[in-house]
Amino acid sequence: MYYEEPDFLRVGMVIKMFRASKAITQMDLAKQIGVSQTHMSNIEHGRVAVNLRLLIKLANIFNCKLDDFFNPHDILGETEKQPEYDEEDVAVIMKMMQQLGRKK
User: Fold this and answer.
1) Rounded Cα–Cα distance for residues 99 and 69 (Å)
2) Total domain count for the chain?
3) Cα dihedral angle (85, 20, 73, 51), rounded to 10 degrees?
4) How far apart are CA 47 and CA 12, in angstroms?
5) Confidence at residue 102, expressed as pLDDT on a 0 to 100 scale
6) Residue 2, domain member (yes or no)
7) Mean pLDDT over each residue of the chain, to the nearest integer
8) Is residue 78 part of a domain?
9) 3-class SS of residue 8
10) Which residues of 31-58 are buried (b: 16+ CB within 10 A; e: fewer)?
11) Could you tell me the residue range of the domain that residue 98 belongs to?
């Protein structure tokens, strides 16, 4: 079996999407996993690699599998290659998800 190096930008975007879907602020999530807001921002922007300890904490908070951070198409139910999103796209998606979360 062969593993490729993770795309930490994609992992960060998945974390952002999970966070937005739960309507959790970046600061609150950072506190829950025991890191600074700056470090959380760096994780979400793919500037730093997220370690296994933090991924386990995040998986418990989001009630997901570790693999979901690396294979978001599995959780989205898509079999085709995921489209690439820039930061502006992610911001729009996050705002939409936050609005959906508030309507509940």
Assistant:
1) 23
2) 1
3) 90
4) 9
5) 66
6) no
7) 84
8) yes
9) helix
10) eebebeeebbbbbbebeeebeeebbeeb
11) 8-102
Question: Which tokens sit at 42?
Answer: 């760096």
Nearest CA-CA partner of 85 in 10, 15, 7: 10
CA distance 58 to 51: 11
Higher-confidence position of 73 and 48: 48
Contact 27, 37 (CB under 8 A): yes
Q: CB-hemisphere CA count at 13 Å for 7?
A: 10
- The C-alpha atoms of residue 98 and residue 38 are separated, in whole angstroms, by 21
Question: How far is it, in rounded angstroms, from Cα 26 to Cα 18?
Answer: 11
57 in any annotated domain: yes
Amino acid at 64: C
What's the token pair of residue 38?
A: 């700056």
Tokens 């370690």 correspond to 51
pTM: 0.70
Closest residue by Cα to residue 7 from 58, 95, 88, 69 = 69
